[in-house]
Amino acid sequence: MKKIILIFFILILLFSFSEDEFKIKRLSMVKTQIESRGITDKRVLNALKEVPRHLFVPEEQKKHAYEDRPLPIGFGQTISQPYIVALMTELLQLNENSKVLEIGTGSGYQAAILSKIVKEVYTIEIYAELAEKAKERFKKLGYTNIFTLNADGYYGWKEKAPFDGIIVTCAASFIPPPLLKQLKIGGIMVIPVGKPFTVQNLLLVKKISDEKIITEVITEVIFVPLIRGNVR
Amino acid sequence: MLDKIISYIILFFVSSLILAYEILFIRIFSLVQWQGYVSLIISLALSGFGISGTILIFLKKFIKNSLSFSFLLVIFHFVISLVCLFIFCIVPFNPFQIGWSKKEFIYLFLQFFTLIPFFTLGALIVGIQFISNFKVSEVYFINLIGSSIGAFLPVVLLHFFSPYQSLMLLFFLYGILIIIIGVIKYRTFNCLFLICLPILLHFLITNFNLLKISEYKGLQYALKLPEAKIITEKNTPLSTIHVIKAKGLREVKGLSYSFTGEIPEQICIYFDGDNASPINPFNEEIKKLEFLSYTTQALPYYLLEDSIDKVLIVGTGGGEGILRALYFNAKEIKGIELNKGVIDLMKNELSEFSGNIYNLENVDVKNCDASDYIKNTKEFFDIIEIALLDSFIGSGLNSIGENYIYTVESLFEFYSKLTNRGIIAITRWLKEPAYDSIKIFSLAIEMAKTYRIEDFLNKIVFIRSANTSTLCISKNKINIDKVKKFLEKMCFEPIFFYGIDKNDIEKFYKSKNSDLFETCIKLVQEGNYVKDYIFDIRPTTDDRPYYYNFIKLKTIKLIWEKGAKFIPFNEWGFLLLVILFSFVSIFCFAFIILPLFFSKKLKLSEIKKNNIVVFLYFFIIAISYFFIEVVLIQKFSLFIMHPVYSITIVIVTMLFFSGLGSLFFEKFKNKIIIFSFIIFILLIYLFFINKIFNFLFHYNFIIRIMLSIILIGIPSFFMGMPYPSLFSIIKEKRPILACWAYGINGFASVISILSANILSIIYGFKLVLLFSILLYFLAFILYLLFNKKIT
Fold first, then answer.
1. Chain A residues contacting B via beta carbons under 8 Å
2. B509-511 and B332-336: which strand pairing?
3. 3-state SS string over B242-310?
4. What are phi and psi of A9, to 5 degrees?
5. Do B220 and B214 meet the contact criterion of CB atoms below 8 Å apart?
6. DSSP code, position A116
7. Per-residue pLDDT tens for B676-708?
8. Distance from CA of B330 to the nearest CA of A (A)
9. pLDDT given for residue B704 in this prediction
């Protein structure tokens, strides 16, 4: 019995060590990859410090979770480079009252980051298995303000619209019109536009009125459908 | 006699297999990867030809019975090739990760390595016949005839089988051949098991999905969507076509943000796994496809407004251009689609979904080359829409490939087929940096200058969306107010129109990279800006039709400074060519020099004694032969006007007639006549070939092919003579030297293809032709020198 308790405590210790190790890596990631590249929004930085990115990747990728690159998460999908997640989040200019829509849940990491900043996150994933896994993950990790839908992201989420911000996390050759409709006036959309497999423009889309949209090219990125984001 | 027949059969089959394998392999891996990358691999693998010569030198004294040795080698070749093909399939090379994953270089190297055995052993088998007791002229003849059949065979097979099936079929036949020879000559049935190998490989490939299309191609992305399925698949010599239906599949190029309507789910056609061409569901309610009018491609329709009589769509594909023309009530729509497979699908299996647009009364889609059509048509059009004819990625990695639509001459042909109010609309992907769009603008400016189009700046407008740019060239002065209204409505940005200034730009699109606008202004104002620009934006011409190449020396410096990610790997075409050329040259040269180090030990003193002359002669005739081949492919592409058939006809004709020439070279006692004739004919082609083509162009396709065969055959006949002329002398008097010469010739073939591409990208084909004429002259001098020395 004593042996079992001893083993149990050793395991907890090991687990807490590894958790500490991940925390150190996470803080280092924020400092060296995020802050150093000009991300200044405290809410974004805090969210990145809090959300355990390593719990959003497969077991075999955990040791790479805080590296400066995207990682495969199965089903031909990947989790974006941390900087891209931070950049796109900051561009949305969200606050604690915001309601945001995400197209392309993937691992759920981006949604988790957003959930630390906003009131509600609505996230859509077209692949059923990914959507289900993300949903389970959110539940397990206690992200109660994230709502997942398995559907075609083209149509957005009409019932929950309008949104203060919309974030699209995979390359698109065009901005789906329903998403523009579901964006509030004054709201911001962040979307990489261009053909997948090569360099796209990360666009910040601001809805001035129902008739007028202004876009700004923020940076060049490489988004492929299977690699969620990598800055060039 | 039986030995001779069997040897010649082996020679014929292996010669044809080498060419067929190369072509089919390129087709297979154009499908699973991208053609540009595969062509590079093939170029490297052809180094095997040169390696075989060096191996021959060391093996020669062990070859007692050339037929037995050849036969053993054939079995070995057969087995190793299949094993290597299997290994090639399982190596997980991914070109997109080269930017951040060093192991991809290892995979690339492995893939290259697995191709070497096939070409090396194949060339070795051929080489053994050359150094055997058979007549050089006969051996060369059979080698070239076999090669010509090998070049022709894939074009036939690809009409009925996929590239992979065609390759397996050839290996199956190879196995049968081995069995037959084993039975006839050696009375052994032990080879029977060999036939199981291609069957086993076929089983492995098909059941374990070893030939996977790259996950980074559009097809794979579409197949991962929910409810995705392949509706149909079709093989053509041009490409393999897949038609995909999936939930959420939508492709729209250049869509305006101001469109708030519905975009239906589409079916997509993929060409070699990429370059999606969407098919929209159409049931005669054209207004449901309103989004088509909210694209940059719709600009000419807004500018013309009034009734539009005739529209020409270049590259109809899935029919988007046709639907757009129908939306704007065009009375008559002509379409050009090079890929017959697409036309067949759109008229048959896909007609219901597409609303039968290819069969409508006022729609006429022709299966032909665009340049061929526009040169021969007597019709005039209100709008000529040149669609996005390449994938975003395909154009990059294929940037060492030619394109005869985006040339100054071709653009003018299109322009001259406009009605008095007509407009050409050319749409390109808007990349970052925007060199592609800038280049098309540069092309238009050059066209205006070359053909002295008056008041051109008033007739041109250039606009952009998030990811496309559309250039409109009008016969009349463009109404700028209409353009501005269109831009305002669509939230598009202008890049250029007459009188544009900084206040007109960045109303809807702010970009820290305003290079596009400023560069276009400079192109208009400063005649020499093309030279100063960091990318190669020289207007392409028929003589230098490398539209997709954007790299020049300045760019290489920039890549060096900013890192490889500045220019995505898919745009590296020319740069990769230079890197490859350097690598292959060093690699090949090392193998040629290698025997010199062992010459004393192996009593190869003949090599040292005569090395310079032999080296230069066989090096030069190979270089000049392949330079001429590259030039003739370019020239006759513009005459025959079909990318697949023109290349096939040139290669097959050259090989066939060169083979014939090698049989007759002994009839020419005085070799001066041979070289003189070659130089004379090539000089005529240098100065007059375009005039000859203009004279003959009005003939139909079949007659043009026959004329091409004559025009190519005549110089090829004589070009087949220099090699056996000296080789037969060397073989008789200095046998070891013959092995070395064979290897040199092989290496030179590889380097010549690469260097011809590099030279023609930089300087154009005329210079390549001129250079090869000089080389033939030099070869003649060397021939005389060597002959004098040896006698």
1. 69, 75-76, 126-128, 152-154, 173-177, 180-181, 193-201, 203, 205, 211-217, 220, 222, 224-227, 230, 232
2. unpaired
3. EEEECCCCCCCCCECCCCCCCCCCCEEEEECCEEEEEECCCCCCHHHHHHHHHEHHHHHHHHHCCCCCE
4. -70, -35
5. yes
6. T
7. 999 999 999 999 998 999 888 888 889 999 999
8. 26
9. 92
List CB contacts of A106: < 8 A, sequence separation 6 or more: A73, A77, A78, A79, A80, A125, A130, A134, A169, A228
pLDDT tens-digit readout, B484-495: 999 999 989 999
pLDDT tens digits, B190-233: 677 777 787 888 887 777 777 777 776 778 878 878 889 999 99
Residue A130 three-state SS? helix
Q: DSSP character for B46?
A: T
B248 touches chain A (CB under 8 A): yes
Q: Which residue out of B102, B510, B516, B550 would a mutagenesis test of the A interface target, given it has the greatest number of A Cβ atoms within 10 Å?
A: B510
Q: Which residue has the tokens 């896909």?
A: B350
Specify whether the CB–CB gap between B328 and B293 falls below 8 A.
yes
Taking the C-alpha atoms of residue B179 and residue B187, their distance in angstroms, rounded to an integer, is 10
Residues B59, B125: contact at Cβ < 8 Å? no
Residue B396 is encoded by which pair of tokens?
Answer: 């990059």
CB contact under 8 A, B467 and A154: no
Interface touch B262/A214, C-beta < 8 Å: no
| 8 Å CB contact of B248 and A154 | yes
SS3 B330: coil
Helix B103-131 to helix B47-59 angle (10° resolution) is: 50
Contacts of A199 in chain B (CB under 8 A): 431-432, 568
- Kindly state whether B455 is in contact with chain A, defined as any CB-CB distance less than 8 angstroms: no
E strands, chain A, where?
71-74, 77-79, 99-103, 120-125, 146-150, 163-168, 183-193, 199-207, 213-224, 227-231
Q: Which residues of A touch B225 (CB under 8 A)?
A: 126
Cβ atoms of B357 and B363 within 8 Å: the answer is yes
* Pair of tokens at residue A94: 């969200």
SS3 B464: strand
Pick from A126, A226, A227: which is nearest to B248 by CB?
A126
CB B482 within 8 A of CB B302: yes
Q: pLDDT of B52-66, one tens digit each?
A: 888 887 787 777 777
* Contact at CB, A127 and B252, closer than 8 angstroms: no
Distance CA B268, CA B228 (A): 11
> B100 — contact with chain A (CB < 8 Å)?
yes
Query: Which sequence positions of A are flagged as catalytic?
Result: 80
